[in-house]
Please model this.
Amino acid sequence: MAKATEFVKEIADIHEDFPQWYTDVVRKTQLVDYGPVKGTMVMRPYGYAVWENIQKELDARIKATGHENVYLPLLIPYSFLMREAEHVEGFAPEVALVTHVGENELPEKLVVRPTSETVFCDMFSKWVQSYRDLPMLVNQWANVIRWEKTTRPFLRTSEFLWQEGHTLHESREEAEEETIKMLRVYEEFAKNVLAIPMLTGRKSEKEKFAGAQATYSIEAMMLDGKSLQAGTTHYLAQNFSEPFNIRFLDKDGTLKYPYQTSWGVSTRLIGAVIMAHGDERGLKLPPFVAPIQIALIPVAMHKPGVLEKAEELCAALKAAGLRVKLDATDNSPGWKYNEYEMKGVPVRLELGPRDIENGVVTVARRDKAGEKFTLPLEGLADSLGTLLREIHENMYAIALAFRDSHIRTVHTMDELGQAVQSNNFALSMWCGDRACEDKIKETYQATSRNMPFDQSPVGDTCVCCGKKAKHKIYWGRAY
Amino acid sequence: MAKATEFVKEIADIHEDFPQWYTDVVRKTQLVDYGPVKGTMVMRPYGYAVWENIQKELDARIKATGHENVYLPLLIPYSFLMREAEHVEGFAPEVALVTHVGENELPEKLVVRPTSETVFCDMFSKWVQSYRDLPMLVNQWANVIRWEKTTRPFLRTSEFLWQEGHTLHESREEAEEETIKMLRVYEEFAKNVLAIPMLTGRKSEKEKFAGAQATYSIEAMMLDGKSLQAGTTHYLAQNFSEPFNIRFLDKDGTLKYPYQTSWGVSTRLIGAVIMAHGDERGLKLPPFVAPIQIALIPVAMHKPGVLEKAEELCAALKAAGLRVKLDATDNSPGWKYNEYEMKGVPVRLELGPRDIENGVVTVARRDKAGEKFTLPLEGLADSLGTLLREIHENMYAIALAFRDSHIRTVHTMDELGQAVQSNNFALSMWCGDRACEDKIKETYQATSRNMPFDQSPVGDTCVCCGKKAKHKIYWGRAY
Model:
């Protein structure tokens, strides 16, 4: 939690310098600090608690869909990475290599995992023998390393935390179904926990995962109109099961290669939360991930009975399962109001002698600036529970309205350029050629985001080359 | 979960070959598998679920004592390790070094963390300015790498998972108090969650942590009479705060170095659970960490109504918060009984047509072989909750009686030798000299375990050299 000696109020203007606003907010609210090795981050208590809340909610969903957690080794033989051609091409330049232990050189250099596909495959080749062993549905919570030249806390760091699900199936259909099922799990989680609406769809060939047959993503719109790819699911077909020789004896007595999927979300989600919901006063955290849901500020704290009543109330709310922080420090109430607003705490309660006399508490919502009202102390835990759900719904509605008002359907390159240059996503038809993707990126620094499942056309021809269109697709500048 | 195709029944005789019994049990119950890099392990769903239960229980205790979780980077600049002289000596030979990213050599080689003291200190030097910032009470759940020549799953692996607490305090007294408080937290956790009694006390100078002023441990007795150091807490004094220049402005206006502690337990605890409680039939898991607390086996499964009733019962018990597995596979009930016994499931329920007719279920306890009884279906969740607590108590009592009957108070080297050679701990007086520790190790392969807080003497002279004794201390062979 913020200590008075460390606390600095100023953050850059969100409308004038969004990147600086982000950097100020993540550091000044003590979510994060820079690690000693370039490109690494330290997740401080306030930031790590957001991740713990994300983990808890998502882990329950991963288990409810039949997956079990495992833990595989951090270090991977270099030769493993080489087995799948696209995979090595995708990851080789950015992998950290362990070459020595103490003074001694290792016989084979080891890769610090950038993702665990290859180790999962090696284990699967031992664990799977028969169709009875399928489906294999496992997940891992772990740290991974991908060396990055330009880094930003949560968004792009050399080390990040994530979960990676890995599954094997008898049939292509079943694996494809799993790929979409987990995409839907991510979408539902983003909506109901992070209060972020997601565009779901398939990535282009250019943007897919190194080694996948097909990659799907959830894409969120940030307040600057840029897209953040917040999670991906991959249909790997037999691209890994063949080189890793994973085979199962099918019911018909023949040996077959199973069909595979993988899917993951990372600490990047915290970046998404910050940039989907913040405002000029700082963070605005959705109630279900907020480390502090309710800041309780005693007013005229030194008057008899105020602090005692505040402590009693705090204990009662905690006992009801709410995440409450009572701030009884010597700082002024006004200073505290600013602090918890900057930290994005959804609800502030002010409790003074008059409130106590009237049997109420004064309530301020972070999502509705300036609005104050009172709630009876009796039944307060219940009414705050309801209020937190309301705040969640309101935050989602605001984010959805913002996003939907920033999508432009476009038919020409000019329209596409105008859309993305004025902080919108562009929705267009596309011929499916890489050359058009490259040209759009070169001209407008916009990339293809994904192809929605609803492919009802918005035209007949590619926005770029004018040839016959194959797909409807979103374009945007992206993190 | 075990699949029929993979399941092999035979495990070595626990009385004839304990090490082989251990190896068989951890692999055949699918707790663990070997990773592709020598000395690493893969935690399979059944093993990782034990760790998840340990984490959940211990994390609640760490938070209840005022600590917050953080996450620090995996990679540490090599220079950091060099700053504390004993620390580098202790860890330098076994650290994995990252020297390259892709094709490029790094300007400074990086250490894959063997422990995070040095990174915590670097961050603390930025975060702490005033006495108001103290105490600093943080904890991290993470993976660490310490290269090992001889490895065994859970007990000694090149990578392991652990938690490491790191705290800073204004005064020596407060830091020492924290060191003992967390030792007590570990002891209580081991008793009430793992059902393992611990010997708590201070380690000798020889056995303490590299960089600590004093190290304390919890030591458990395994079924072969050997000791397993299951957790440690360290009083670091100012040994790290000085070289890392962590200073705070005290109330008196002067800059001071804070006093520091660290403490940790690891996936080694799972090894302790296995070797403190197993028997000739396999694992025996304490109810509060068992991934499956109750195995529900339908008998005469294909008679009408049996499977339906079993499914209904399973759902009701799960809804009551119990971890139940209904095994409706085609394997025979006898095969299933053996399987869940080997896997150490605390309670087995058998549900057949006659049970259903009588409104009961047949119950077998893993901790009391051969004993069977019935429980009414009505109120079953409650009676099983009570039964699981009883099983926990019984397992603790058995482990305590076993340990206490395997401690010998000794006064001579011969007695010490006889004690440890016949699978006991030896309790003796000791002069405090390293030479005597070395001699005892050389002669009997026994090491000092710890010096209990109750130092009421059992003699006047050192068990080894016969000089005046300073300490009462436990000796044993150890993992």
User: Anything to note?
Assistant: Residues 380-404 of chain A form the longest helix (25 residues). Chain A has 13 helices and 24 strands. The longest strand of chain A covers residues 159-169. Chain A has three domains: 18-277, 294-390, 407-476.
